[in-house]
Specification:
The complex is a heterodimer of chains A (605) and B (457). Chain A is of the alpha/beta class. Chain A has 18 helices and 27 strands. An 8-stranded antiparallel beta sheet of chain A has the order 3-2-4-1-10-9-11-15, with helices on one face. A 7-stranded antiparallel beta sheet of chain A has the order 5-6-7-8-12-13-14. The longest helix of chain A has 21 residues, at 400-420. Chain B is an alpha/beta fold and 457 residues long. In chain B, 16% of the residues lie in helices and 37% in strands. Chain B has an 18-stranded parallel beta sheet that branches. In chain B, strands 14-17-20-22-24-29-32-35-40-43-46 form an 11-stranded parallel beta sheet, with no helix packed on it. The termini of chain B are far apart. The chains are: A alpha/beta (605), B alpha/beta (457). Chain A binds chain B through residues 237-239, 242-246, 252, 255-256, 258-259, 262, 265-267, 269-272, 433, 436-437, 439-441, 443-444, 446-447, 563, and chain B through 20, 51, 53, 57-58, 60-62, 64-69, 74-76, 78, 244-245, 260-261, 263, 265, 278-279, 281, 283-284, 295-296, 298, 312-313, 347-348.
């Protein structure tokens, strides 16, 4: 996934594109580039962070049209030559591209046979050459782009500027593209934050659309015909693109969790009646005949799915499991009419998850999406959507979205359980009261950050870190380890606590801190046995402990107090793990918001 | 116009509310004090605001972020150690290149005050402060004037030595040369007060004063919060503060402000002078009057809460009463007589069912058991008060800060981390030290030291 941006308007394009790229950096950042339009194209591109590009950009430019790109490399290493925009030999055609062109190899061979010269190793470079071939004085750029895109296989979104031609032409297939309409011009981008400080009026082109951007707006063509796409207004503010006094977006987002959780809950919970209102369109007969719920997701969202699966089995009394999307197949003799497949994806664009979802749909299963992003691809492909309302998450490592996903999924579990009659009013009230108590409980943990920071200082030099937990604490252990891995680059692994003695215990030494979930919902008493196992090997233990383990300080080296919150205590304990990972990474001087080799929303498979 | 707002202080006198949030973030009419200040700045035409933050700064940063919501450019500088108002202002130096307005983030003022101070500065090129008249000037910084010129500044002078009715409102307009003046000020180590700088400044330069008669609201003590809150609700309550769900049989007064995601259950009555934070749940039959309820609070069925402040994430059990009335309060080594004050519950407090809390302050993270009676007293942090424990009201003589006060209504003090068993009774005036344990059924009196264990004997 890379970030692309384009602008046509009355204002100077250079500062607009530069700022826009800065807001897109979270999508990919091993190289960046800009092409400024007008009479002749000026192309600037550099390997490295955005600041490397900014060094070679001119102070000023009169161009009011341009395209830009930040890159997360898939084909070809990050180098100046491989950075986008790519051009043909004349330099009159410039292209920025997001996605993978699967048949680029064949196309490149054919183009080289016809005399084209290539300067990079990328798949993208075939596009400007193809465009240049098709272009003639009487051919419309829109038709050319349409024809060229027909010759490509794969998933992509790209934008083209041509010297002497008005505006920008873009198209998408499988990769996100959004248009923005400001007073002074028109934008296209991979994601809204690129231009949200200029306008909040957006529209989402559909698959296969070819768009011509001009100063006045955008004309959208589908199959050669002009079509109109709805313009809506996004609610996110540009403030999301600023760190507001925090050193890292991730830290800001960890602290935003109470607020995000209140938004997730607001208007959806009636604690008195034990009811949840999520505006779901799931018929009673369907829910009563439901045999299985499958959560498909990747990474942190997968962990949220595992947490949810346990709650669904317990409270909705239905077989539930979480599957890693890239491994998911719909088989095993399941009845698709009695299987609900839930795609959990923060961005709504994760390619692996979308693929898995499509496999489920082809088999005939009913689908539900739990996502943070309005207008995203997943919302258009499922039968129902529930939004987690966490607000934009810029840090690549997911924090508040995990918390909001689990909270939202808990609400879904209660909703389904009530409809199926598998959860009593009292049980529902308790669970909902716990969900309502999440913002306050998380805030309590955040108010204790100093204790975590000191612990991070003490254990920062661990050889490896192990996270253990049972039941709902198990996905939290996995998630804790993933977070530490992602941002501090330490070796961290999460295990169901009972599994430790079946192998991994061999790795435990006095230099490997162990973080344990010792709360309600996580079989704390049994986990204490595992804590003793590692302590007897000399490993220091940090425990997120609630009243489920009174006097936890007797059993662990560092006790992080988790307020009483029933089945959601493990989720609250996870906030300690987030803070721990953040401070360990910070002490090691890691880049945190932009971990090496990672990007925010993985739109390639 | 640029403004520097000082919001780094700890605000000790408003403990326990200021344990987890800085004073400027305490809500008045359901919006943080600092938000009222920022609004006034925006109305006055300020475009860029530098917030000097320190204690619990995440709360401020989470709320204001980069200022987009207020059409302002907000940036932050951090005062890592609280070394006085002058030192705080100095932190903003790198962000200031020209004349600017400086003010405190914990006093609510009108936009006109900012405008007038700025205008006078532009007209004369001299630094300007503003003064207002109050009844008890000796509580603040008293300013002596000769016409428009400031001739003397004194912080909290003795009442009998106070020579003027005017006090410093804490709103200034300066040139960047103020920073050098702050640095050059002779002062006591560890305390660099802005007023010290100004006292030295006026020795050879002119400092002008603008007289102001408009709104100037300071929340110094917790009961001020109730008063100020009440007076501002009337200005604030617009339509559009409809709670997320209010049962048809519940009553919500017009003179009440309700946050987002609030639920009001059947037969509940939210009367005048009440502000409810976000995600608050008002149970069936609850009665609320003249109360500030912070976010995430749960009031269970039949609870009665009047004349008090309830901290964030606190739970008040079924049929519990948190009563109002007049009382004497001992806070921060001072005795305040006859204050209208029901009580104050800190953050994360859990009050059980059928309890009575009257004129008491319960600090954060404490638990009050079912049926407990807590009157005229202070319960520390993280205290476990067992079921049916009684801290009786009554009148007693106490010594506070070395001074004897007679006939003070004081039930007692339970120190931090105390564990008090069920059915324990405290005689009036009992002080239980920190980390003490009292076994069930004991009757306690007098002063008990820290870490003591009290058994039935």
């Amino acid at each position: 996934m890379c970030g692309i941006i384009g602008y046509v308007g009355r204002e100077d394009a250079l500062p607009i594109l530069r700022d826009g790229l800065s807001n897109l950096e979270y999508r990919g950042y091993d190289s960046a580039g800009i092409a400024l339009g007008g009479g002749k194209l000026d192309v600037y591109k550099r390997e490295g962070e955005l600041s490397a590009l900014t060094e070679i950009l001119p102070e000023r430019s009169t161009a009011t049209t341009g395209i830009g790109h930040t890159r997360w490399s898939t084909h070809g290493e990050p180098t100046d030559e491989n950075a986008h925009p790519h051009t043909d030999e004349s330099g009159d055609v410039a292209v920025v591209h997001n996605g993978i062109i699967e048949n680029y190899d064949t196309l490149r061979t054919e183009l080289e046979a016809r005399g084209h010269e290539f300067t990079s190793d990328t798949d993208t470079e075939v596009v400007p050459h193809l465009v240049e071939e098709e272009l003639g004085p009487d051919r419309d750029l829109v038709d050319v782009v349409s024809d060229v895109s027909d010759r490509l296989t794969g998933n992509f979104a790209f934008a083209v500027v041509v010297a002497g031609r008005d505006g920008i032409v873009a198209t998408r297939r499988g990769n996100p593209l959004v248009l923005g309409f400001a007073d002074h011009g028109t934008f296209l981008a991979s994601d809204v934050p690129a231009f949200v400080e200029h306008t909040r009026r957006v529209s989402y082109p559909q698959e296969g659309d070819v768009i011509h951007l001009t100063e006045e707006g955008a004309t959208v063509y589908a199959d050669g015909e002009v079509v109109s796409r709805d313009i809506s207004e996004v609610e996110w503010d540009a403030e999301a693109a600023e760190k507001g006094g925090y050193e890292h977006y991730m830290h800001k987002e960890i602290h935003e969790q109470p607020r995000a959780l209140r938004q997730a809950i607001s208007g959806r919970v009636d604690e008195m009646k034990g009811e949840v209102d999520l505006d779901l369109d799931l018929p009673d007969e369907y829910l009563n005949s439901l045999e299985e719920v499958q959560f498909v997701a990747c990474g942190t969202s997968y962990h949220a799915g595992r947490y949810a699966a346990k709650l669904f089995e317990e409270y909705a009394d239905v077989r539930a499991s979480a599957e890693v999307a890239s491994e998911y197949e719909f088989d095993g003799g399941r009845d698709p009419w009695r299987t609900l497949v839930v795609a959990v994806t923060q961005s709504g664009e994760t390619a692996d998850t979308l693929s898995a979802l499509r496999r489920a749909k082809r088999a005939g299963a009913r689908t539900l999406a739990v996502t943070n992003t309005l207008g995203s691809t997943v919302t258009r492909e499922v039968d129902d959507t529930v939004f987690i309302r966490a607000g934009p998450e810029i840090g690549v490592a997911a924090t508040k979205t995990f918390c909001s996903q689990v909270a939202t999924l808990t609400l879904v579990a209660v909703a389904v359980g009530r409809r199926r009659g598998t959860i009593s009013t009292t049980e529902a009230q308790t669970l909902l009261s716990d969900v309502r108590g999440l913002p306050g409980a998380v805030q309590q943990v955040l108010d204790r950050e100093e204790q975590v920071r000191l612990a991070a200082e003490e254990y920062v030099d661990g050889d490896a870190f192990f996270f253990i937990g049972r039941r709902l604490g198990a996905p939290v252990a996995l998630e804790g380890a993933l977070k530490l891995k992602e941002i501090s680059y330490d070796h961290a692994e999460g295990f169901p606590a009972g599994e430790l003695k079946h192998g991994p215990l061999a790795l435990v030494t006095p230099e490997t801190p162990v973080l344990a979930v010792l709360t309600e919902g996580a079989k704390a008493t049994e986990t204490l046995n595992n804590v003793k196992e590692v302590e007897s090997r000399g490993a220091p233990v940090l425990g997120g402990a609630s009243d489920a383990v009174p006097d936890a300080e007797k059993f662990v080296d560092e006790a992080f107090v988790v307020p009483a919150l029933g089945e959601l205590e493990p989720l609250v304990a996870n906030v300690y793990f987030q803070l721990f990972s953040y401070h360990v990474a910070n002490l090691k001087g890691r880049s945190i918001d932009k971990p090496r080799n990672l990007a925010k929303s993985v739109t390639v498979e | 116009m640029k403004a520097v707002v000082l919001a780094a202080g700890k605000g000790r006198r408003l403990w326990p509310l200021t344990e987890n949030r800085p004073k400027p973030m305490i809500p008045v009419a359901n919006r943080p004090i600092l938000e009222h200040v920022v609004d006034a700045l925006e109305t006055a035409g300020v475009e860029e605001v530098v917030l000097v933050v320190g204690s619990n700064r995440e709360r401020i940063q989470n709320h204001f972020r980069d200022g987009q919501e207020w059409d302002l450019d907000i940036s932050y500088v951090i005062q890592t150690q609280q070394l006085g108002t002058g030192h705080a202002l100095l932190q903003a130096e790198s962000r200031i290149g020209d004349s600017f307005v400086a003010l405190n983030g914990d006093r609510i003022i009108d936009a006109t005050l900012i405008e007038r101070v700025w205008e006078r500065h532009r007209e004369t090129d001299d630094p300007v402060l503003s003064v207002t008249r109050v009844e008890e000037p000796s509580r603040y910084g008293v300013v002596e004037l000769d016409g428009e010129t400031v001739v003397d500044l004194e912080e909290k002078p003795l009442p009998q030595l106070t020579r003027s009715d005017y006090i410093n409102t804490g709103v200034y307009a300066f040139d960047p040369d103020i920073f050098a003046a702050i640095r050059g000020t002779e002062n006591e180590p560890g305390e660099q007060a802005l007023t010290d700088t100004l006292s030295q400044y006026i020795e050879d330069r002119r400092l002008r004063a603008v007289k102001y008669r408009g709104m100037w609201l300071d929340v110094s003590e917790p009961w001020d919060l109730l008063e100020v809150n009440d007076s501002l609700i009337a200005d604030e309550a617009p339509a559009g503060t409809d709670p997320a769900s209010v049962d048809d049989s519940a009553v919500v007064a017009e003179a009440a402000i309700v946050g987002e995601g609030v639920t009001v259950h059947p037969q509940a009555a939210v009367l005048r002078g009440v502000t409810l934070g976000d995600n608050v749940s008002i149970g069936p039959g609850v009665l609320l009057e003249n109360a500030v309820i912070l976010s995430d609070v749960t009031l269970k069925n039949g609870a009665v809460v009047t004349d008090c402040i309830v901290g964030a994430n606190t739970t008040i059990g079924p049929n519990t009463t948190v009563e109002g009335g007049e009382t004497d309060v001992v806070l921060d080594d001072t005795v305040y007589r006859d204050v209208t004050f029901g009580g104050m519950l800190g953050d994360n407090v859990d009050v059980g069912a059928n309890a009575v809390v009257a004129n008491a302050v319960v600090l954060s993270d404490s638990t009050i058991g079912d049926g407990a009676v807590v009157r005229d007293c202070v319960i520390g942090e993280n205290v476990r008060l067992g079921p049916n424990a009684t801290v009786e009201g009554g009148v007693t003589d106490i010594v506070v800060d070395g001074e004897l006060h007679e006939d003070v209504r004081l039930g007692g003090v339970v120190g931090d981390n105390g564990a008090v068993g069920g059915g324990v009774t405290f005689s009036p005036g009992t002080v239980l030290g920190n980390h003490a344990v009292v076994e069930s059924g004991c009757r306690v009196s007098g002063h008990i030291e820290d870490d003591a264990v009290v058994r039935r004997g």
